[in-house]
Each structure stands twice: as C-alpha cells, then as structure tokens.
Amino acid sequence: MNGYQRLVVSVLVILFFAVLGGGLLLVAVFGARAASSPDHGGGQGRSLFPARALCVVGMSFAVVGAFFVSIATDVLGMVLGMVGYFLGACVLGSMVVILSIATLLIGLLVGPAALPGSYDQQMHGTERPASD
Predict the structure, then answer these.
(1) How big is the CA angle at 24 (ends 62 and 26), to the nearest 5 degrees?
(2) 55 lies in which domain range?
(3) Is the alpha carbon torsion for 82, 83, 84, 88 positive or negative?
(4) pLDDT of 25-38, one tens digit each?
(5) Into how many domains does the chain fold?
(6) pTM > 0.85
C-alpha cells in the first residue's frame, strides 16, 4: 500500500467515525429534547434512540460506501436503515435507504477512480499500466 492509498484510507476512517459520532450526538441531543417536550405524543412508551442509532450507523456505512467498489457497506447501510424505519424512525430510516442507494451508484461509478489500481486488482487481478 503506497502513501496515497494510506492517506485515502485514513481519511475514510476519520470520515466514518466523524459521521458516526456526530450523528449519535445529534440523535441523543434532539431525541432527549423531543421526549421532554410537552407536545410529544407518540403514546408508544418506548424510546426511538435505538432506531435512530441504527440509522446513524447505516448512514455512516452509506457515506463511506461511496468510495468503495464493493457493495457490502451500502447494502449494510440499507439494511440498518430499514431496521431503523421499522423500529419507528421512519423519516431517518427512509433517508438512509435513499442515501445508501445513491452512494451505491456513486461508488460503482466513481470508486475505481477514487482508489487507483484497487478496482483492477480486485476485478481482474491486474494493475493499470503506468502512464507517463
């Protein structure tokens, strides 16, 4: 792995944890505010934090999945978004599923250019010829 690829991987790891940490912080803050408001209906008597947390994790996978040729991270984002949707976070869950589909397409179209050489090695077992 050369220096450029290490830099890209480091940025992707930082991006994943930034989206994950920031999203969980927003879910905790705004979820607590919504639960303490007097007009909070719901009537279900259960917290939406697990559903929203799953959606945030799915969103993190979806954002990082835009940079990979593999579809596993985007599919995982879609699954977590659907689980969050069915647990009660309907808007956030549907947004995560849509974002996962969009980043799946972006990853398949732009992924080979984002990490040079990785696509050819994975798909064909060859490397691109050096262009001078």
Answers:
(1) 110
(2) 3-36+48-123
(3) positive
(4) 777 777 655 555 55
(5) 1
(6) no
